[in-house]
Design goal:
The protein contains eleven helices and four strands. It has 242 residues and is of the alpha+beta class. It has a four-stranded mixed β-sheet, with helices on one face.
Length: 242
C-alpha cells in the first residue's frame, strides 16, 4: 500500500522531474549491477516487476534487471509448486530370468520375430509387453526376422498418411496458475494442426462437440480421412469416434 500511494504522488509531478529521476535511477541500477552478482528479489518484488514489465516497450525489456526470460522462469517455478504430485514408483524392471528366457528363445529360433517371441512368453505365463521384448533383443543387437510383407507401424503411416488424423491434449498454465487443456488435431500427411478448443474442465461431451466443429470446418475434405489415432484417455468417448 505504501508503494501504491507513492506512485499516486508521482502522478502530480512534472514530466521533466520524472525524466530526470528515470535517468538517475538507471545510472544507480547500472552501479548496483556491477556490485551485486545475483539479486534476490522477494515475492512482493517479483509481483511488482512482473506487473510493470509488460507496460515497457519491447526494446527496453531486454536490458532491464528482470528480463522476459526471468519472468518466464518465475512462472515455471510457480507452476512447479502448484502442480506437485506425489512421486509414484515407475514400472518395475524386468527380471533377469525373463531376460535370459527372451534371449534364449530368440537365439534358438532365429526365424522368430519380436511378436513370435512375445507370444511364446505369454503362453509360458510371462505377461510383459511386446515393446519390452523388442527392447531386450535390440539391446543385445538381435534383429527381427525378415518378413515377406512389411506391416510395421511406420510403413502403415506412410501408406495411409493421406487418410490419417491424430488428436490429443496439451496443457497451458496461466499466470494465475490455472491449468487449461487444449484439444488439437493433426493431419498426418500435411502436418497441419487444428486447435479445436481450450477449456479448464474437459469431458467427453465437450470433446465430442469440438470434433463436430472440426467436421464443419473441414467440410468436403472430411470424407478423405479414414482413421483417427488417439490414446485411451477417458475424454475420448465413443461419440468422438463416431
Amino acid at each position: 500500500m505504501v508503494r501504491v500511494f507513492g506512485w499516486l504522488v508521482l502522478l502530480g509531478r512534472s514530466q521533466a522531474f520524472k525524466d530526470a529521476e528515470i535517468l538517475v535511477l538507471r545510472h544507480e541500477v547500472m552501479v548496483l549491477c556491477r556490485q551485486v552478482a545475483r539479486p534476490r528479489p522477494d515475492l512482493a518484488d517479483r509481483a511488482v516487476l512482473a506487473a510493470l514489465a509488460r507496460l515497457l516497450p519491447a526494446a527496453l525489456r531486454g536490458s532491464r534487471l528482470v528480463t522476459p526470460g526471468t519472468l518466464l522462469a518465475w512462472h515455471r517455478r510457480l507452476v512447479t509448486r502448484k502442480w506437485t504430485y506425489p512421486s509414484r514408483p515407475g514400472r518395475p524392471p524386468v527380471g533377469q530370468e525373463i531376460r535370459d528366457l527372451v534371449l534364449r528363445l530368440a537365439g534358438e529360433n532365429p526365424a522368430w520375430g519380436y511378436r513370435r517371441v512375445h507370444g511364446e512368453l505369454t503362453r509360458l505365463g510371462h505377461h510383459i509387453s511386446e515393446a519390452t521384448v523388442r527392447r531386450i533383443l535390440r539391446a543385445r543387437r538381435y534383429r527381427p526376422a525378415p518378413r515377406g510383407l512389411d506391416t510395421s507401424w511406420r510403413t502403415f503411416l506412410r501408406a495411409q498418411a493421406e487418410g490419417l488424423l491424430a488428436c490429443d491434449f496439451f496443457t497451458v498454465d496461466t499466470i494465475f496458475l490455472k491449468r487449461l487443456y487444449v484439444l488439437f488435431v493433426l493431419e498426418i500427411a500435411t502436418r497441419r494442426v487444428h486447435i479445436l478448443g481450450v477449456t479448464q474442465h474437459p469431458d467427453g461431451a465437450w470433446t465430442a462437440q469440438q470434433a463436430r466443429n472440426l467436421i464443419m470446418d473441414l467440410a468436403g475434405r472430411i470424407g478423405s480421412f479414414r482413421f483417427l489415432i488417439r490414446d485411451r484417455d477417458a475424454k475420448f468417448t465413443g461419440a468422438l469416434d463416431a
